């Protein structure tokens, strides 16, 4: 049988250096820096003051908006600073710094100790909200908001994203191998929270042992299936994953909900499962520290650990670093400093060497069409790049720039080495700016 | 930890190993066997033609870029490809100055005048060949037979003037291996096909254009050629269909980049080739068919823009 997958796409070298390296739980650092925005949506307001004593898992920041997620202290200790710190998006963000007392005194668990079967869908959603769970695949969309189905829509399917299509990263792979029972619990809770009848876990066949492990876990479960997928990028992008598994195309400009589907990352399922079992909010997660470090590793690390500490924990740089990237090499954000806090949605820290980030010589576009073939959204990056350079918003709109999901496949394949993804982003800016101006 | 100076650039941070230079290198690699076979059949003079064409293509490119104060990009290899293709499109008996003149025309008028690499609206080598055919028709259609260098006619010309003597036509085997009259690099279907397979395997060219082109030529001439599948095979092996469909029609810049557009473009090339061959006044139509389709390429591309992901679902 031919394996399911998406159309178009690319096959970058996987470079999964750490797929056989077990998760190591890192000891909590001396101090943690909890950013007040670790999600898409409204930034949190601090709930604590300088000098306050906080417990591990205590809520220390919150915002009432629907699209937001509270943040929690990942250690017990004392608040020693509240203010802006450097952040992974290249800007600064307000953060609460807590000095660890190394007692790990836990706050009251979330929930009332009921089992998943006893909880209602509303209770599960409010627990998820309270625990500050966000999309763990990198985007950081508040999970509770995603699970809230508006009136008139019906969700018939939950898709769990276990494909981890970014090269290098293995944090999801390790969680699947080591904590599949927790994931299963999370999926059960997510099914209940959405009212979906069926869950499909998409996993790449190249993730050694993952399919077997999940099969074992779901063997006795009704309504949860593992779907083996061919290895291809960008299969972890939710629309492509939905297409690969179900053949449904999410309408342009719409949401997965429009085709009756909610997609959650397998890391999110783990976080929900962990919440259901322990009542603890999201204060630690798996992360891959890889590339040009001495011992590429998978860690279970506390949120708020400094990125420099994580690199140190992986043995430090193995040679002079070229770029330090938060996330994977296809879509990750390069950093100007490693003195930034680790957050809930950080999947990996990738160190590339100087020679790896040496830009290849650029030529003019030779119109080879590789980008068109690579684009799984069936766009024409070759035109979009030209229109973006010229600031031609009419052209950008005509060729559907806003349907670009910024997966970077076009820029990966380009033989002229044009920074196509950059042009896509510039083009989107032009169009959104124009639309905002038109509204006024 | 001591802070290093870190590089910030737009994602993705990894790139495929394919570069423009590598593409040109692969094309040259795929062309060299056919050029070598040309030298084998048509002697050392063929080699001189090829080298002169390449030399002048590269020199004029550097000269023009120097004159207009643009960076000199001869290292990308595209001028070598143009020169080589042009040389392979010359009859060996043509005067030696004709290659350099054609190369200069291809580079200056067709390529650099429109902005250089990636901006030529026609295949430069073919446009130069068409110019030379119009300017020096006698020189460009004086054919000699392999090895002995005696004056001969190409199989297509024999066909065009009517077959008075059936033995005048070469065997299919000779046409397949290239032991016939014709341009330096176009005669050996076998070696050209091998080059094509190599380029498709290396993902340099799309199989769609050559396949559509060859299939159209074969089917069209089988139906209208008057001799059934014999005509089909004959037209496939004679003249420049192999060289044209594999190496000239697939020029990225002057062909559509959309998958559906490439089918249409290939079929169009095949149709025009056969219209000229069967009912036109020229015996051969490959150059003109590709040039005409070059001009149509942007239009084809416009009408074959793929439907974006999620568009179908929306209309439900």
How does this structure look, described?
The complex is a heterodimer of chains A (440) and B (316). Chain A is of the alpha/beta class and 440 residues long. Chain A has 2 domains: 1-27 and 111-358, NADH-ubiquinone oxidoreductase 51kDa subunit (Rossmann fold), CATH 3.40.50; 370-439, no CATH class. Helices cover 28% and strands 20% of the residues of chain A. Chain A has a 6-stranded mixed beta sheet with strand order 1-14-13-17-15-16, with helices on both faces. A 4-stranded antiparallel beta sheet of chain A has the order 2-8-7-4, with no helix packed on it. The mean pLDDT of chain A is 94. Chain B has 316 residues and is mostly helical. Chain B has a single domain (20-303), classed as Ammonium transporter fold. Chain B is built from 15 helices and 2 strands. In chain B, a hairpin with a 6-residue loop joins β1 and β2. In chain B, α1 runs antiparallel to α9 and α10 (208-224) packs antiparallel against α12. The interface between A and B is large, with 78 and 46 residues.
């Amino acid at each position: 049988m031919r394996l399911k997958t998406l159309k178009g796409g690319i096959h970058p070298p996987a470079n999964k250096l750490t797929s056989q390296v077990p998760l190591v739980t890192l000891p909590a650092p001396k101090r943690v820096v909890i950013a007040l925005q670790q999600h898409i949506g409204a930034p949190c307001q601090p709930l604590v003051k300088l000098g306050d004593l906080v417990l591990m898992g205590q809520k220390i920041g919150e915002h009432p908006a629907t699209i937001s997620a509270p943040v929690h202290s990942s250690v017990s200790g004392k608040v020693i600073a509240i203010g802006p710190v450097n952040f992974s998006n290249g800007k600064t963000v307000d953060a609460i710094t807590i000095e660890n007392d190394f007692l790990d005194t836990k706050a009251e668990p979330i929930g009332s100790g009921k089992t998943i079967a006893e909880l209602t869908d509303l209770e599960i959603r409010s627990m998820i909200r309270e625990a500050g769970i966000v999309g763990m695949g990198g985007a950081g969309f508040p999970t509770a908001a995603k699970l809230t189905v508006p009136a008139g829509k019906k969700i018939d399917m939950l898709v769990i994203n276990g494909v981890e299509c970014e090269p290098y990263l293995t944090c999801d792979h390790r969680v699947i191998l080591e904590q599949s029972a927790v994931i299963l619990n999370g999926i059960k809770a997510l099914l209940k929270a959405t009212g979906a009848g069926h869950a499909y876990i998409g996993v790449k066949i190249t993730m050694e042992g993952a399919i077997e492990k999940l099969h074992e876990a779901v063997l006795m479960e009704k309504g949860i299936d593992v779907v083996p997928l061919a290895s291809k990028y960008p299969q972890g992008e939710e629309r492509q994953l939905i297409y690969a598994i179900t053949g449904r195309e999410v309408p342009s400009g719409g949401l997965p909900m429009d085709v009756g589907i909610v997609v959650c990352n397998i890391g999110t399922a783990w976080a929900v499962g962990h919440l259901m079992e322990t009542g603890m909010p999201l204060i630690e997660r798996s992360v891959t520290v890889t590339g040009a470090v001495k011992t590429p590793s998978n860690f279970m690390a506390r949120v708020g650990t400094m990125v420099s500490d994580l690199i140190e924990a992986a043995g430090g740089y193995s040679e002079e670093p070229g770029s330090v990237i938060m996330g994977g090499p296809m879509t990750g954000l390069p950093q100007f400093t490693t003195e930034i806090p680790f957050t809930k949605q950080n999947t990996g820290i990738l160190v590339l060497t100087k020679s790896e980030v040496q830009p290849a010589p650029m030529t003019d576009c030779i119109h080879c069409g590789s980008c068109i073939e690579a684009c799984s959204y069936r766009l024409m990056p070759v035109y979009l790049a030209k229109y973006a350079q010229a600031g031609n918003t009419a052209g950008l709109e005509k060729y559907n720039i806003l349907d670009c999901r910024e997966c970077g496949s076009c820029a990966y394949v380009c033989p002229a080495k044009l920074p196509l993804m950059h042009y896509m982003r510039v083009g989107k800016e032009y169009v959104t700016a124009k639309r905002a101006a038109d509204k006024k | 930890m001591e802070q290093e100076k870190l590089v910030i650039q737009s994602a993705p941070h990894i790139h495929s190993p394919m570069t423009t230079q590598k593409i040109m290198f692969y094309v040259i690699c795929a062309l060299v066997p056919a050029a070598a076979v040309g030298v084998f059949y048509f002697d050392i003079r063929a080699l001189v033609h090829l080298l002169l064409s390449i030399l002048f293509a590269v020199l004029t490119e550097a000269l023009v870029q120097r004159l207009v104060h643009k960076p000199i990009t001869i290292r990308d290899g595209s001028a070598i490809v143009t020169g080589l293709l042009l040389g392979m499109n010359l009859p060996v008996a043509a005067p030696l100055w004709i290659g350099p003149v054609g190369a200069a025309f291809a580079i200056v008028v067709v390529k650099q005048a429109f902005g250089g690499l990636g901006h030529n609206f026609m295949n430069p080598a073919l446009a130069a060949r068409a110019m030379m055919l119009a300017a020096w028709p006698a020189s460009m259609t004086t054919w000699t037979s392999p090895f002995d260098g005696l004056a001969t006619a190409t199989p297509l010309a024999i066909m065009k003037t009517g077959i008075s003597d059936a033995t005048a036509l070469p065997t299919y085997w000779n046409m397949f291996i290239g032991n016939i009259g014709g341009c330096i690099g176009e005669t050996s279907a076998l070696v050209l096909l091998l080059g094509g397979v190599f380029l498709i395997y290396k993902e340099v060219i799309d199989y769609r254009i050559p396949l559509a082109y060859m299939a159209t030529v074969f089917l069209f001439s089988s139906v209208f050629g008057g001799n059934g599948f014999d005509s089909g095979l004959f037209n496939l092996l004679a003249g420049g269909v192999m060289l044209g469909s594999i190496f000239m029609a697939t020029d990225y810049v002057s062909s559509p980049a959309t998958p559906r557009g490439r089918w249409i473009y290939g079929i169009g090339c095949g149709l025009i080739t056969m219209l000229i061959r069967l009912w036109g006044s020229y015996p051969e139509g490959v150059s003109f068919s590709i040039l005409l389709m070059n001009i149509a390429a942007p239009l084809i591309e416009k009408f074959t823009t793929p439907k974006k992901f999620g568009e179908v679902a929306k209309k439900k």
